[in-house]
Design goal:
With 185 residues, the chain is mainly alpha-helical. It has one domain. It is built from 7 helices and no strands.
Length: 185
Amino acid sequence: MLEKLIQWDQDTFIYLNSLGSEPYDFFWTMVTKISVWTPLFLWFLVLFLLKFPKKEAFTRITSVIGLALFITGLTHWTKIVFKRLRPNNNEEINSYIRILETPSDFSFFSGHAASSVAIALLVYLLLRSKIKWVGLFFIWPLLFTTSRIYVGVHYPLDILVGAIVGLLSGILFYRLHRAIAPGTS
C-alpha cells in the first residue's frame, strides 16, 4: 500500500511538473522565494498595529512569530527523521523533470506549505473580526505551495501533509493565543 502511494505521488509529481513552460519560469521561481513575500509579512505587522491597541497587537504578532518558529523547527526535525529525497535529487526521475531550484536537504514535509498555511490561517483568525477581505491572504499559500512542484523540489504528498500540519498548527496557536490572552479572538 505504501509503495503504491509513493508511486502515485511520484507519477503525479512528474505529470504536474511537466505542465510547466519556460515563459512562466521566472514567475514561479520568484513566487517560491520567501524573501519575495517580505512585503506581505510587513503588511501583516502593519495591520495588527493599525487594528488593535499596542499591547493586543504585540500579543498577536508574538503569536504569529511563535508559530513561525514552531513550524520551522518541526519541519526541520521531520525532514531529518524521514529523509525523503527531493524530486530534484532523486536519480530515478531527475533526468526527465523540470528542475528550477536545487536544494539539497530533504523533502518530507514541505516547510513552504506548512508555514504559509499556518501563518495565513492564524493571521486570518486574528484579523477576521477587523478586516472583511482578510481571506485574500490565502492566495499566498496557494501560490507558494504550487511553486514547489513547478520548480521541481516537492512531491504532492509533501505539500498535502505540510498543508495539514500547517492547518493543525495554525489552529493550535490560535487556541494558545486565546488561552494566553483571554477575551481576544
